[in-house]
Fold each of these.
Amino acid sequence: MIDLYFWPTPNGHKITMFLEEVGLDYSFKPVNIGAGDQFKPEFLAFSPNNRMPAIIDHAPADGGEPITVFESGAILLYLAEKTGRFLPADVRGRKTVTEWLFWQIGGLGPMAGQNHHFVQYAPERIPYAMDRYVKETNRLYGVMDKRLAANEFLGGADYSIADMAAYPWVVPHERQQQNLDDFPNLKRWFHAIKARPAVICAYEKGSAVNPSNQATVNDESKKILFGQSAETLKR
């Protein structure tokens, strides 16, 4: 039913978490971003930002032609609306969940991603950049911790697509130089989600897409992953 264009990264795991929770049939279409699969013309035809994940829904709700969706947040919204799951129907609940979903997409993901880049992958150590993004990641963890002090989940009382969006970006907290012991409410939330059967299954299946545990980022793949420009898409 769903073709999932995927590689086991935080954004990729968001979608497998949802699909495993709702039990929709899906098949993996591996996009090895370290090898440049994201630049293949057939992928760019429906994922123009040359990023995964993306999906093709072969059984859309309107019964028409298959629907393609790119961008992880848009995919989560699409699937939540398709299934009626993990997104409140009432206007206030929906508003809150979408706030935290967009907070992750616009804040936690990009800032943690820059943290990863400058701390782990940059060819030279730039203390200002490292400090800036480690601290900003820390600030965002604090935002979550404060929210979760009064709420079981980011959207409120119920698990939602906001939690599915944020969780994979907290999984590599040690690489981000963050200590979950400093954020007790976030730590409680993190371990509750980690223990969900659908999350366990999603990560197991995701890891199997890269069975040799091939490093996504190495000296060769850095040439593909970093330093892209508009010219990259013209090749």
Note: DSSP finds nine helices and four strands in the chain.
Amino acid sequence: MSHDDATPQTPDQLAAFMEGLTFAPPPAPQDEQALLDSLPAAGSSVMVVRSLRLPIELDQAVASAAQAGGVPKTAWIRQAIEMALAVQADDDQPISRAEALRALTLLRPARHVA
């Protein structure tokens, strides 16, 4: 394991480091209220940030699909994950290929207005 030269390695170095710390003053009351007002509302959904490694080709395909759908890449990826989870849900009721084809034949083709 490597160590950063700035990382304290001994108790004396740690004490010197701690002595050198400075803290910003707390915000003024009006600034504090502005900061609090910028937070999400109580009870709103929490979004978790995930780091994801993708091959460049897959990332480009996601970018193209997201652009075609008119959504940001993160929204497109989130929707794809939601669809995959829905397919794997315990209450999912798979149907046969014949039933799927029968249902598809009942659909009318979409008419595109130019």
Note: The chain has a mean pLDDT of 86.
Amino acid sequence: MGLRDPLYWLYERRLERKLGDADTPRHVGVILDGNRRWARISGLGDVNRGHQAGADKIFELLGWCSERGVQVVTLWLLSTDNLGRPREELEPLLRIIENTVIRLRDEGWNVNPMGALDLLPDSTARVMKEAGAATSGKPGLIVNVAVGYGGRREIADAVRSLLAEEAAKGTTIEELAERLDLEHIGEHLYTRGQPDPDLLIRTSGEQRLSGFLLWQSAHSEFYFCEVFWPAFRRVDFLRALRAFGARNRRFGS
């Protein structure tokens, strides 16, 4: 064992000891950024090896979240903008995502697909829906898998769903306009019934949300981490929790 290994272990234990129950967010959202850049700087050549390493890292993160008592994790795997990538780049990424979702299902995580599934290839949409149906209601950590996701699209879908529901009841636009409030829209989001994210993490050093959970993140705390996603360590996760616990949450004030 090298000199850095025991020092890392001691630092990790120290961080963990300092964290209390109040430092655990109920819902953690993660923008898994930097897979391609990690592959390049690691000399792997094929960027899909970075995507696969990033997919494998997800299961480490879920273990860490489960240990800490996190209730919900939202993973942004593919945006609606990414669907416009060249076919030779997009198809291998979609296969990795499909295999990841199947593994989540097989390991018994409670998978909640979210995103514009109608924009995805049939095979990807089918895997997402089957995983959601097979794991719905399982106890423990809920894993929101955001594929073909965009924050603006989610809000538009929520409004569209709300209008369709009210139209089926015979509600007029005028009647709906009189009583429409934030809760009505919230009930039609992809994350309906879940707590809003307390903590949003983005890796790779980028300091923007890029449309991630636009509606739900109104009162979230943000943590931007320099490390690329495949290199994200448990100590990085604990640092994010430490930063979250140190914040004085004002909820908009």
Note: Residues 47-68 form the longest helix (22 residues).
Amino acid sequence: MASKNYSLPLHFGNFFTEEGGRLSTCALLESIDHHLELLLTTCPGEHYFNKAYGTMIWELDFERVASRSQWEESFTNFIYRAIVENEKRVVDVDVSIKLREVVREEGLSKSVAVRQRVDIYVLGRLLATGEKCGFSYTLYLGPLSNE
């Protein structure tokens, strides 16, 4: 029996209509992509039923960086562990990141803000089919946000 993959965010309005009564579904890769993005942007302790769900990258958001290579290794390991523990549909996971500074002009005040941009690349294999898959995400640190 094929499993259903639900689209995120969940729109419960469709579920309660007389003609609909169903939540939106999506393809397996799209479902994994949505789940990984949710996993990356969730701080441990935020999920009501699983306090360990999320990534510990939040601990590094405002940390003073003594060693860039050590910081990158910790960041990568936090993401790797979160994916391996929480996304069982992907195996042979490999995570890499690219860190760079971005100068942005903020709003009407034209103040300049320097932020860290982290490009995250996740490679793996689908457990169900053995196909290779890849995902990429961009996060800005200080404070953490996504693009």
Note: Residues 13 and 23 are 9 Å apart (CA to CA).
